[in-house]
Amino acid sequence: MLAEFKAFLLKTNALALAVGVIIGAALGTVVTSLVNDIIMPPVGVLLGGVDFKSLVIKLKDATVDAAGKPVPEVDIRYGTFINAVIAFIIVALVVFLIARMFLKEAPAAPSKTCPFCKESNAVDASKCKACASAI
Hints:
Blueprint: H1 2-11, H2 14-46, E1 57-60, E2 63-64, E3 70-71, E4 74-76, H3 78-102, E5 111-113, E6 120-122
Helix pairs in contact: 2-3
């Protein structure tokens, strides 16, 4: 069974997929740092000193319940969401550029066109696959 599993990993794209996931996770960490530590501070300064991490809509203040337990505040942290969206856009752009660079479209197979229905057929075909005319 171990030999079959090893053959599966080596014959299929499972190994390439695993490498892609690992590199993608590392890229995500780098891009998150890029967005939070490099891109957003200057953007915040340009927008009047805004710290995007502190942009929240407060729904409920922190309180203490009747038993003396602290109840945390409830916020919608839309600044953090903006950072995540920017990080996603950067990751998507990098993945698109890498895919475009490495995944080339295969050249079209040679074919001949049926003179009657204009359907594309294999070069060695003697009859059209669409209208059955001799070509």
